[in-house]
Amino acid sequence: MGFLDQLVAGFGNALSGSGLLIMIGGVAWGIIGGAIPGISGAVAMALALPYTFSMDAATALVMLAGVWAGANYGGSIPAILMRMPGTPGSAAALMDGYELTRQGLAAKALGVSLVCGTIGGLISIIVLIALVVPLGNLVLAFGSPETFALAVFGLTLIAGLSGPSILKGLAAGAFGLLLTTVGLDTLTGSLRLTFGRRELLAGVDIISAMIGLFAVSEMFYQLSHPTRRDVTPPVDARTSFPTLRELRDVSRATVVGTIVGLIVGIMPGAGATAASFVAYNEGRRWSKRPELFGKGSLEGVAAPETANNAVQGGDLVPTLALGIPGSNSAAIMLAALILHGIVPGPFLMSQQSKLVYTLFAGLILVNLLMIPVGIVILRGCLLALRMPPPNLVASILAVIFIGTYAADLFILNPVLALIFGVIGYGMRVTGFPPAATVLGLVLGFLAESELRRSLIISHGTWAIFFTRPISAVLLVFTIGFLLYPLALNLRRMRRQPPSPATAPASGGSSR
Amino acid sequence: MPTHALRRELIAAAVLIAFGVWIVSVALKIPLGVATDPLGPRTFPAALGAGIALCGILLAGGVLLFRGRGGQVKLTMEPDPEDEGEAGGPFSPGRLAGAIGATAVYLGAFEPLGYLLATTGYVLVLMLLHGGASSRSLAITPPIAALVLYAVFKFGLLIPVPAGVLAPLLPR
Fold first, then answer.
1. Burial of A332 (0-12, 13-18, 19+ CB in 10 A)
2. Is residue B138 part of a domain?
3. How many other C-beta atoms are found inside a 10 Å radius of the C-beta of residue B151?
4. What's the structural domain count of chain B?
5. Rounded CA gap, A221 and A431, in Å?
6. Can you point out the beta strands (E) in A119-166?
7. Among candidates A343, A345, A310, which has minimal Cα distance to A324?
8. Is the pLDDT score of A314 beyond 90?
9. Given this model, what pLDDT does residue B78 score?
10. Number of structural domains in chain A
11. Three-class SS of residue A192?
């Protein structure tokens, strides 16, 4: 049977019986679960797992794929509407998404997120279908030096997030990196910065820190500025789809996001969070209007959202081809496969081709279903924004704290959200970018652990990063991307000496 | 640069320096680890602490060196959040302290008092702090918000939300 025939048969299997209803249920649950802080994609999938026991393997996998895809998108809803990332992967989208909400363009931001996320998801699945075997082999080329180089590449975003003061950006980024060193050192077992507190052995919970820095600080800001009436301006309770022209405008960001999502997704351990931040940075780098990033750019929503969803296809490459889960969500998929007596790995494609093609078809279908299901759920979310500001602020804070508590029934997590809320508030009023801290939190563990592993492998020789082609290329790009704007500025300064009349005006420019 | 902005920048720089130095001193007490790990567990936190302190020194140096020179203000001075185009009212430290205090009390009461009672009180206090809510809204919203969230997490997500003092009255 040919490739296309198998895929067509896969569509038939996925849609047989109550397949469509199960997929819709999976996507809807994923969107709702992703939208609740603390219930990440993996948790939403884990909660759905027991319901799959009575299903056949293909239906179970397709349903879980729906939950996964839905959660990737669902996390962006509170991120865009309330500056509260539902999942860590949606944190990058809030930088421009929330700005758009403040400008009364919430529905447009959500529409771009939904459409571009679907495009990213679909392309990544098509690439997965076409290249699962060769890409599976590529996974083996990624070792510690390559992952470290990718983390460093992602950290260059700090420069872009810094705003007017690069020093404050660097300090905020270093603070985020520092937070990832709290707890038990995974390589040596040493306790670091725990100050004798058992609660800190597992480190700082990233979602609590993110929610504190972004959402709690924002709500405290609203409460401490009493005449402020615009938690969000009035919004139309409909999803506003991007026009063709807008889609063309964000096409570059969508392509960048898809490529980044796929590549990062393939690398075990990197995940959607790293992908969305790297994609945001690359989206700005490749944008024709990078100056709009951070001020409500649709590209600033499209790039991370596309990457966030494109990770799914990339993530499934090592999961299906090698039996190595690239993320927590992929691990749940792997668990579902094993629970149904299927052994993932190099022989999966040949021995279980019917199941694999049903999964491929199901992945395409759930990504397509995201749009209609997303529209229905979004309508309710947008209606919630019409609540009076006191009710909305109080309810959001109540949701935040039960959400962070629910993540692992640990009172320390909401306490951390409060502490980071206060820190985030302080950072906001003194001009330190919280997003740089979040980036450090996202990439810090990866950077340090892979750096140390690489040096253990090389017996302390730093040349390992430049003798391996992928890491060398990534590091050269990193250096190039850091030096290029500097060189450009120097050249501009030489050509155009600053006019005395313009200097004072720049000092008071708004962001 | 206005005096209050200068003071704010210098305070921020001082906090960075103090925090960075403290982190370096704590990091240097971390055990060295194993010989096969060339960097060891203390290098990363110590280097980051030193980096934060250095940022603080450069920030303070920049502020003191370039104060009064309009062209350099941009290096260190952030636009005031009030000037960012936000419809923000005047800063009310009392409300901020109230919100932080109410949240701390809420988290303290979360498990012993139970989710429903603690959340009802918390939402009510926040609405009062925010101001502008009608008395009808103040009477209805807090218990409804608490009940809805309790139902979603307890029965929808099957998460054992603390029942506290209401445990005998609530369904298991």
1. buried
2. yes
3. 11
4. 2
5. 14
6. none
7. A345
8. no
9. 41
10. 1
11. strand
CB contact under 8 A, A193 and B83: no
Which residue range forms the structural domain that includes residue B121?
93-165
In whole angstroms, give the CA distance from residue B140 to residue A253. Answer: 45
Contact A184/B at CB under 8 A: no
Please determine, for residue B140, whether its predicted confidence score (pLDDT) is greater than 90: yes
pLDDT band per the 50, 70, 90 thresholds, residue A487: confident
By the CB < 8 Å criterion, does B127 face chain A?
yes
Residue of B nearest to A411 (CA): B107
Across all residues in chain A, what is the average pLDDT?
A: 82
Chain B hits for A406, CB-CB cut-off 8 Å, are 153, 157, 159, 161
Q: Is B137 helix (H, G, I), strand (E, B) or coil?
A: helix
Q: Are A165 and B31 a contacting pair at CB < 8 A?
A: no
B79 touches chain A (CB under 8 A): yes
Share of chain B above pLDDT 90, in %: 51
Range of the domain at A20: 3-133+184-430
Gap between the Cα atoms of B38 and B34, Å rounded:
8
B54-106 pLDDT tens trace: 999 999 998 888 765 544 444 333 444 444 444 456 788 899 999 999 999 99
Give the global pTM.
0.76
Cα of B167 to nearest chain A Cα, Å: 17
| Residue A475: count of CB within 10 angstroms of its CB | 20
B126–A390 C-beta distance less than 8 A: yes
For residue A504, is pLDDT > 90? no
Dihedral sign (CA A271, A277, A282, A287): positive
Amino acid at position A456, single letter: I
What residues in B contact A414, CB-CB < 8 Å? 107, 110
Q: How far apart are CA B20 and CA B32, in angstroms?
A: 20
ipTM: 0.88
Nearest to B74 among A391, A402, A506 (CB): A506
Q: Bigger pLDDT: B130 or A37?
A: B130
- Partners of residue A192 on adjacent β-strands: A183
Classify residue B92 by its DSSP letter: -
Domain-embedded: residue B170: no
- Tell me the chain A residues in contact with residue B106 when contact means C-beta distances shorter than 8 Å: 401
Interval A192-207 mean pLDDT: 87
- Are residues B7 and B77 located together in one domain of the fold? yes
B120 — contact with chain A (CB < 8 Å)?
no
Strands A191-192 and A183-184: antiparallel
